[in-house]
Amino acid sequence: QVQLVESGGGLVQPGGSLRLSCAASGFTFSSYDMRWYRQAPGKEREWVATISPTGGYTNHADSVKGRFTISRDNAKRTLYLQMDSLKPEDTAVYLCNSAGYWGQGTQVTVSS
Q: 9, 11, 34, 105: which has the highest count of C-beta atoms within 10 A?
């Protein structure tokens, strides 16, 4: 069955960095767009970034542009999100999405 398993979240100070991973299985990873979303408490789920199947096209939400970078390794069937210059407002559960499926999410907390 399809599985998307996120990891790499944690507690980080403002200005810090984290790298999230999403390990995929159960579908042809290299054939699909992959996306990151996030959801903060009491807020709607927000799209963060998209990457094309080959990685040749990426797009990031304005709120993270210049600070976050989406990437993928098709050989490892893994999606990444490099997050730099983190802000308290980046605090959320981060989820990966593809082919109609969602992971369980990983918590990112930005606080001093």
A: 34
Using an 8 Å Cβ cutoff, are 33 and 99 in contact? no
pLDDT in tens, 24-59: 999 999 999 999 999 999 999 999 999 999 999 999
Q: Which two tokens stand for residue 58?
A: 């990426």
Query: DSSP secondary-structure letter at 47?
Result: E
Q: Average pLDDT in the 50-74 region? A: 98
Q: What number of other Cβ atoms are within 10 A of residue 28's Cβ?
A: 11
**Residue pair 72/81 in contact by the 8 Å Cβ criterion:** no
Alpha carbon distance 110, 112 (integer Å): 7
